[in-house]
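thread: overnight batch results

M.L. [08:02]
morning all. the overnight job finished for the chain we discussed friday. pasting input first so we're all looking at the same thing
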Amino acid sequence: MCKNDETVKALLLMMFWRRLFPLDIAPLIEYANSNSELLSEIAIDKLGYTKDKRIHDLAIHLLEEKGLDSHALGLLKKNYRKTDDDIIRKLIVKVSSVPQYVQGDIADIYKHHRSANALPILLHVYQNGYCTHCRHGIVQAMNHCKVLSDGIIEECLHDSYEDTRKKSNMTVAYPPSSLTFTLAAGSTTIIAPTFANYLGIGFAGYQLEQHEQHDHRHLCKLDTNPNHLANQ
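M.L. [08:03]
and the structure it wrote out:
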């Protein structure tokens, strides 16, 4: 295929930008292996909207052959398997500065697929990514995978991303490490399995408490004692 033909194919594929490709994906898989960077990237983008074993196999092949530069990580958004954690981790930890597109792909993968083994991947991307908006997604992914620590939650209160700070400061008057757990007289406790008004994700194990006398709110550890709950 000459260079002009590859460019034409790439431009035609752009007609399906951000939408599911309606035809057979076999040609797209072929184009994803093209030496034309433009055609390859656009074909990979189209394939990212489809779940198919062939796409998973393509993603692993490209990641093993070309690494993160292949842009194949995005193919795992719909085609992830827990066995993929190993190759993702090996590639991610090699990168000292995580590119924005990699941050976004990692966030999307683990916001939709839960894995207890995702912690080293998510933590490395959280600490070494330069996109603050994408870091917000990484925190959401940590929460989804149940690996979000109190330390990360506390850091989010001082995040450089304004929306993250605003949403956290609307809810938490001070960081979790300095919370007071003593109930004030006349207070009304809202019993909830999780407090989910922080970044749209939630503090697992915390609940919102409204102190009527003092007219302020803060977080308290969720009381899981069945005798206490029965007396509410």
